Amino acid sequence: MTRPPGPLLTRFQRLPVVGRLVLAVALAMTLVLTGAAGLVYWRVETALDSQLDEDLAAYQQTLDRAVRDGQDLPAGPNGSLSQVLDTDGRVLRSSSVVHDQRLLTSAERAAAAHGAVVRRDIGALLPITDGTLRLRAQRVTAGGQPRIVIAAVQRGHRDEALRELLAQLALASGLTLLAASYVGYRTARAALRPVERYRVGAAALADGAAASPGLRLEVPIDRDDEITRLGHTLNRMLGRLAASAAREHQFIADASHELRTPLTLMRAELDVALHRPRTAEELTETLRSVDAEARRLVTLANALLDLEQLGSGERIQRVPTTLDSLLDDTCAQYRTAAERDGRTLTVAYGPATVRVDPRWLEPAVGTLLDNALRHGRGAIVVRAEARDGRLSLSVSDEGPGFPPDFLPHAFDRFSRAEASRTTPGAGLGLALVAAVAASHGGTARAANISPGGTGGMGVTEAAGAAVTLDVPC
């Protein structure tokens, strides 16, 4: 026994084809936008929570040290709170804001007294409330007695940033959904306009409004798609119907020649579309074009999130790194592409060990190599030299160089030279390079090379462009 469709499916099936297509596009875009917005929100929330947890952990360590040494409770970040309890829950010392107010529940206090680290948020993101906190509590031994030290920091800036992000994501997603629905509606109408024209012509003949044997639908002869084939099929049907009408007329004339019943021939006026018909493939292509923008935000977001993460030097983890391990693997990935273009990629460095964060320096070098491959010409040279506690790392090529008016803005976000606007990219590569240098406490500079100049390691340079990172190591 076939199960009848549900009420929602029944309503959907009763909609016009255009309505169903637009609804399908809207539902698909809603899923895509929701997923993209969720990913962006999660990444931003994770970054903000990580920074807040780092601040809270640092404040907790300062409080623990002060309690062990019997010192006064130190001041922490702006809006931070502190409290010291004994294992029975009595408040021994506290910030003036909370006084004797207990920040822990009985269960949390018992868990902290047994050595567990207690973490909790006070207040919610929505609705907006005052006094939102993130606290951390753990047991500390002071003077031979166990104490519970509580550190808390304000979540106001974090919550405000997330609420603003939610509002912007909702606005951007709503506008994108409206634009996608409108494009889907216009495309579906254009694609189905020939079908409606065919229907009108067939209905005219079926209703007896036209019986001319020459009635045919206007079908393009230079195409072979689904709608064109439908038009040819309808024309064959019209031909058969016209032949059947002719036979019927002859039968009436032969059987009733005494009757002079005139036959009125009528022709249907066909609505000729002014716009070119759109195929289902063109509709699919339109949907694919909407899907790609989204993906630069994340990535921006992601790229912008990377830039924001690099805005704090606390995220840089310097480790001893040899120049060969820093450069060889990275350059090897691009050497094949350079050779395929008939170009050379040379790496010049001396034996040295530097203290940097390779997680960020390697992609920065990769970005410069990618720019040299896409925008430069001739040989590509990577030089690295460690001297007097600083690392100088440069990537140069023999291309046309940077336009003079672009150099002052080379490291600005979304800044692109006019000559590179026809190539893919968002103008964030050099901005990321500058952020990597800044996060290490250094600088990045871009310059054009004069013919015959001498670069580091004693290598004579031809004309071209060079980007140099100078960071302490």
- Give the strand order, joined by hyphens, for the main sheet: 2-1-5-4-3
Low-confidence stretches: 254-275, 454-462
CATH architectural group of the domain at 318-472: 2-Layer Sandwich
Order of helices and strands: HHEEHEEEHHHHEHEEHEEHEE
What is the CATH superfamily label of the domain at 318-472? Answer: Histidine kinase-like ATPase, C-terminal domain
Q: Oligomeric form of this entry?
A: single chain
Say how many strands there are.
12
Give the helix tally.
10
Estimate percent helicity: 40-55%
Radius of gyration: 36 Å
Structural classification: alpha+beta
Describe the model.
This protein is α+β, with helices and mostly antiparallel strands. Among the domains are: 52-160, PAS domain (Beta-Lactamase), CATH 3.30.450.20; 318-472, Heat Shock Protein 90 (2-Layer Sandwich), CATH 3.30.565. Helices cover 47% and strands 17% of the residues. Helix 2 runs parallel beside helix 7. The chain is flat. The model is unreliable at 254-275 and 454-462 (pLDDT under 50).
